[in-house]
Amino acid sequence: MTTADQNKVDTTFDNENNGDETVGAIGVVGDGSASQTLDGNAGAAGVAGTGRPMTEEEMVAEAIRRGEETAEAEIAADAQRAAQERDRLQNELDSVSDKIEAAKQQAAEANDRFLRLQADWDNYRRRTAQERLDERQRATEKLVVGLLPVIDDLERAIEHADNLTDPAAQQFVEG
């Protein structure tokens, strides 16, 4: 590589996210003189307030300073965006967590209602089975109580028929 090629430096610093000013090309041309293209406060007029042109080191330092400012601004903007995204995601997570808790509570209530209905059904089945048995027992008891006078009357009639001497009555009893 020749000395002329080594002296050519062309670096571009870009400030996309800041938007206020852009640092353009700074370079050293083959004859060793510095040239610059700056859009901003220091401009091509030289060092601010001195009226003399900027040296190569001053241009590099200014470019580095502006690059660092740009990087810091980008980092701050990225940090702010990340914080906003984190807050948004945290809010979304909280919302979803609340919905999950509500769904769990609703499921627990539904399960409780189901268990209560199941217990009520079992109690109803047992109660109706017992009521049927009780009703049969009452019906049987009623029948027996109703038949007792008839049975007593038949027993008395049979006793009385054994004491009869009339042949027609005997034939009626024997049947």
Automatic annotation (TrEMBL):
In terms of Pfam families, this protein maps to:
GrpE
Its domain of life reads: Bacteria
Q: Where is this region: Disordered?
A: 1-54
SUPFAM superfamilies in the record: Coiled-coil domain of nucleotide exchange factor GrpE
The residue ranges flagged as biased composition, category Low complexity, are 40-51
Q: One GO BP annotation here?
A: protein folding
**Protein keywords:** Chaperone, Coiled coil
Provide ranges: composition bias, Polar residues: 1-16
User: Where does this protein have coiled-coil stretches?
Assistant: 72-120
GO: which molecular function terms? adenyl-nucleotide exchange factor activity; protein homodimerization activity; protein-folding chaperone binding; unfolded protein binding
Q: Which family does it belong to?
A: Belongs to the GrpE family.
Name used for this protein in its record:
Nucleotide exchange factor GrpE
Q: Which organism is it from?
A: Lancefieldella parvula
User: Which taxonomic lineage does the organism of this UniProt entry have?
Assistant: Bacteria, Bacillati, Actinomycetota, Coriobacteriia, Coriobacteriales
